[in-house]
Write a structure and sequence with these properties.
Length: 279
Amino acid sequence: MRKLHSFKQHSVLPGFNLALGFTLVYLSLIVLIPLSAAFIRTSALTWPEFWAVVTTPRVVASYRLTFGASFAAALLNAIFGLLVAWVLVRYHFPGKRLVDALVDLPFALPTAVAGIALTALYAGNGWIGQFFEPLGIKIAFTPVGVFVALTFIGLPFVVRTVQPVLEDIESELEEAAATLGATRLQTFSRVIFPTLFPALMTGFALAFARAIGEYGSVIFIAGNMPMISEITPLLIITKLEQYDYTGATALAVVMLVISFVMLLIINLLQWWSRRSAAI
């Protein structure tokens, strides 16, 4: 009984047991049961069969592109997402509301529409691609196009995660640092950034997770060439169209495990940064 009470937190509204029960049931129906179904389906394969399915050269190349491009896109969004959030919070300029609304556009835009628009822009005869084509730089239908698409869909996650934290930072902290003789760089690196870092890591993790599962916008601009610009979600769809459900779930399990491990590491780093800041 004492252990149960230790999990409870004092609240004006009662109902801890009921709320916890609904939470566990909802998470089980929406998350745990569908994910466990993938593992159960994959269990029909023996370990050698499973290993043979998930380690073919074509599949390994898709892992490399999917996780590599997702990580690079999330990292770029972490840098420029912080910059965008900083501009939106700290400065007032004409058209600020429009820029703020444009940040959410990748949320609302259908992924297929985003893929078609990006392909039209970055193709060899597109508005932007035509300037890179004479230089021998091809964006659309290459891994670079995949990176561009994943960067496009991931930016709002970083901006909207960092923005409220940046708004809550009191300007008195910066003034106090300046009074004590800190430069602008020192004020940002030692006062502001440690406060923003956990939120920035959260935004990075969200952008990374979103990029790993992206399909609609990528298939239009990637070109989907095996061993070059083919992502793992496309391979899963291909196996489903070939009625190879066990092979598709095997790839899904690999992506699920790798994604979970990477997100767990990111969350541990976030917890460690918050604990260090508290100390």
